[in-house]
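# nightly structure sweep
# worker-07 picked up a monomer target from the shared queue
# config: single-sequence mode, recycle default, output format = structure tokens
# input follows
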Amino acid sequence: MSTRRAGSGFAFVTPFLAAYLLFLVLPLGMGLVASLTDAGLTGASTEFVGLANYAEALTDPAMWRSFGVTVGFTAASTPPLILVGLVMALLTHHLAPARWLWRLAFFAPYVLPSSAIALIFVWMYQPEFGLADSLLSWLGIGPVGWLSHPVAAMLGVVVATVWWTVGFNFLLYLAALQAIPHDLYEASSLDGAGGWRQLWHITLPLLRPTTGLIAVLQVLASLKVFDQFYLITNGGPQHSTRPVLQYVYESGFTNYRTGYASAVSYVFFAAILLFTLAHFSIQRRRAGGDRP
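# output follows
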């Protein structure tokens, strides 16, 4: 009976295993092999070059500059995505009338495709008739080169990303808020605690696990950024907003160096892996320190 159950269970997972091996494990292996060669898209013969691609990637200023753009974008976008999502969830949770409308309004941008988001913000950032400069002119601020100045271009992509993706964090925070027992607020109000004290001493501490989860998910998502930069700024001006994945794309499909692009991808993968391991190590130490 146990053998029959094991066989039926294996039959159920076989389609998933097949898809997993075909679309994840096999491409990873092929990419690793390609990173050790001078493979390209020109159809020329491929030669084994060992770790030459990795050595070039580690000494390539363009790769490190794109890596810095990715890290800078992650550092600039993660805090507002967490804070704005939390504020939106708190507002929705405490606004009884038309709560469904607030949920729809806050989450609706998240379901839009990246091409639509890029089109909206490219029009908003136009120097002559864009909405962004029109709003700034009302405040007495001159026009800003949203697509021509390096700092303004990065800020523009961060704003677009926050408006586009904060709805997911909003839903996570809203679900966590609804899971907090209402008895805690009633007991604290009987003890004389007001709204702000309840927020700082009840709500935020109980939301700490959700905040940690959102922070990790947001960092990983921001490190993999590609669509916004490619569609809004195309890495400009002068590659000041070109993330790592766009550099990989250009190396492989514009310069036809798929072997080198694969090596850069694995260097980037190693950096993400180190970040993940460091995060797990810190979490394990904190969990060990909290134990009696």
